[in-house]
Structure formats: structure tokens, C-alpha cells
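Researcher: We're teaching a course module on how sequence relates to structure. For the next exercise, students receive a sequence and then see the predicted structure as C-alpha cells, so they can try to spot secondary structure elements on their own. Here is the exercise chain.
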Amino acid sequence: VRLEQAIIGTTRALARQPELAIAFAAAPIGADLVLPVPPTNGPELTFIRSSADGFALKKRLHDDALHTSLRPKEPSRAELFDMLEQIRIETLGSQYFHGIRYNFSQRLSRRLEKQSAPYPLALKLELFARKHLQPDIFSGSAAAAHTLQDFSAYEDMMEKLSKQKTAEKTALQE
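Model: And here is the predicted structure for the students to work with:
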């Protein structure tokens, strides 16, 4: 019970919403966030904490009206847009809270361990975005490090193209 109270208190404080309804177990009516009953330790606890952290940060940092007005209509673009917004929120929140950064890092590692390679394109794009916005989230994740190696060839190609375009632009201005 104390652990549940700690998670509830932390989530409410992080969201800056003291009346936020948070419940554990099956979906009770009226709860804003429903989490599984937490174990006393281990990866499942870190997953529950990272879920609560992500929810609280979204409550605090997300603007539904703005997001809806900018969100693409096409489903795959909308999915990518939503994913990037979640990464933005988690990046902002984890800059100041090292425990939250740790929870997100552990959640990502656990997710990658459960997912068999090759990863779907959406997950690869997420990892690519996280690499640039949250580089420290990959510490301790061999699966993420391996996947990010796949991107190095693309990054090299993009850097060469960028240098080529800059050279062409400079030549045209001379």
C-alpha cells in the first residue's frame, strides 16, 4: 500500500494535478490512469513507474488542442507524429529527473528485449529519434546499441548529401 501511495503521490506531483484519479488493478470507473498492482521490486515495478511517469509528464507538458490541430490526418503520419510528441514529452521530463530517465531507459531496454529482430520500421524510427533527443537513454541496452548501428550507414549518407548540397549552394553563390 505504501508503494502504491508513493507512485500515486509522485504521479500527481509530476503532473501538477493533485486530484488526478489513479487506480491499481482492473479498470475502475472514473480513474484517469489504471496501473497493475505493483510488485515490490524488479523490472515490472520499473515498467509501472515509467508508465506513471509518462502519463504524468503528458498531463503536464502536452497541449491537446495544439496537438490535434497539427496532427496529420493520414494514419501512419499521425502515428509518427504521436510517437514524436511522446518522445518530446519524455525528453523534457527526463532532463531534470534522473529517476524518470532511468525508468524510461529500463522500459526501452525491456521493450527491445521482448521484441524480436528485425524491428518494425516504426520502432526503428522511434529509436532513431530517441538517439538524437535522448542519447543517454540507451545506456545498458545492447539491443538498442545494435539497432542504432544500422542507422550509422544512413547517417553517413545523409551527412555526405548535406555536404554536397552545401558545396553546390556555395558554388552557385560564387
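Model: If you want an answer key for the exercise: The beta strands are 22-24, 33-35. The chain has seven helices and two strands.
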